[in-house]
Amino acid sequence: MLIAGIDYSLNGPAICVFNGNDDFVFEKCNFYFLTNTKKYGTTLFRNVHGQLFDDYEEECERYDTISDWVMRIIVGCDQIGLEDYAYGAQGRVFHIAENTGILKYKCYQSSIPIEVFSPSYVKKLATGKGNSDKPAMYEAFLKETGIPLQGIITPNKKDIGNPVSDIVDSYYVCKSLFTQIQASAQR
Question: Can you give the pTM of this predicted structure?
Answer without folding.
Answer: 0.95
